[in-house]
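Ops channel
N.P.: pipeline sanity check, posting one input/output pair.
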């Protein structure tokens, strides 16, 4: 799933981050004196012999996980498309300024080797891919360890299905693992605690029971929509915000479905994933003008809202997205 990117994030999303909002930081563990660390990543026990010093990352959410932990000094660079949007309000903007932009597409063996990387942090369809042979196994043969984004873990249901745990649990798992690997456990724990508190505040005010609006996540696609199942970040963003993901029964992270499913499930709200060459406004115009959707509640009542791509993939922006969507869903519930 090759995505495009970003816009601004609230400083609230970076509660207790190391590089945003003036938070204090703990020094990361010294790579020269540390012992090996064994982590569970995508269900496998993986041992890292040393603290990585030249990490390369693929995509915005993965890159900002490193920045949120204050680990830009451990990075050799990142890959992401150039439609990054306005980064002036991003709590981790300094990380982008301090880190090399390796590619405006996605990582390759060549740019990883050129960067002298000692860890590749990417995910399936967030950089790792069978076509082209850019996989953790291929990198291992080159002597380069990998860490796989938990949202993207293959779940065994099919060759392409992804996700093994609830999305926010995946975020917390990766922050915890990265905290252990780089010796910044306190920093990771503070981030997670801040995120949990922020989300709990939204949950306390969220609509309940039958008042919860039903929500469809629209990423892209005209002939057939690309959307989020229960293992991608929108599932819990929608749920914690006070809505119900109409595709909760889809045991995958991101997948293509049919428009007939959207019509049948009749969502009250549509959330647009804003990224790429097609703007959120153009996506909205399409949804409002597409004849098969004319009787869908969200279209009839023009209840269509957008969130940025970086809000809707696993990233430290997820809690802020919960807060903003929660405010919108409360107005929908109150206006019925």
């Amino acid at each position: 799933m090759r995505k495009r990117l970003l816009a601004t994030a609230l400083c609230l999303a970076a509660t207790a981050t190391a590089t945003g909002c003036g938070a204090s930081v703990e020094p990361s563990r010294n790579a020269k004196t540390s012992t090996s660390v064994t982590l569970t990543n995508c269900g496998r026990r993986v041992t890292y012999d040393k603290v990585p010093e030249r990490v390369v990352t693929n995509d915005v959410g993965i890159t900002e996980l490193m920045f949120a932990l204050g680990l830009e000094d451990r990075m050799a660079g990142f890959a992401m498309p150039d439609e990054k949007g306005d980064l002036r309000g991003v709590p981790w903007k300094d990380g982008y300024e301090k880190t090399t932009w390796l590619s405006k597409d996605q990582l390759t063996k060549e740019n990883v080797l050129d960067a002298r990387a000692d860890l590749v942090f990417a995910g399936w369809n967030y950089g790792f891919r069978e076509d082209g042979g850019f996989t953790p196994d291929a990198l291992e043969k080159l002597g380069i360890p990998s860490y796989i984004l938990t949202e993207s873990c293959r779940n065994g249901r099919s060759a392409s299905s992804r996700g093994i745990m609830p999305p926010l649990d995946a975020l917390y798992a990766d922050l915890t693992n990265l905290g252990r690997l780089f010796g910044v456990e306190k920093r990771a724990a503070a981030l997670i605690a801040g995120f949990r508190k922020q989300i709990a505040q939204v949950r306390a005010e969220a609509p309940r029971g039958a008042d919860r609006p039903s929500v469809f996540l629209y990423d892209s696609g005209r002939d057939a929509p690309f959307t989020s199942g229960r293992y991608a970040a929108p599932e819990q963003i929608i749920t914690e915000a006070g809505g119900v993901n109409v595709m909760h029964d889809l045991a995958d992270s991101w997948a293509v479905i049919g428009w007939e499913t959207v019509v049948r499930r009749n969502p009250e709200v549509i959330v647009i994933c804003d990224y790429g060459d097609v703007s959120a406004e153009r996506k909205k115009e399409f949804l409002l003008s597409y004849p098969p959707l004319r009787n869908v509640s969200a279209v009839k009542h023009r209840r269509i809202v957008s969130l940025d791509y970086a809000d809707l993939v696993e990233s430290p922006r997820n809690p802020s997205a919960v807060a903003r969507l929660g405010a919108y869903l409360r107005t929908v519930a109150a206006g019925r």
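N.P.: looks fine end to end. The radius of gyration is 20 Å.
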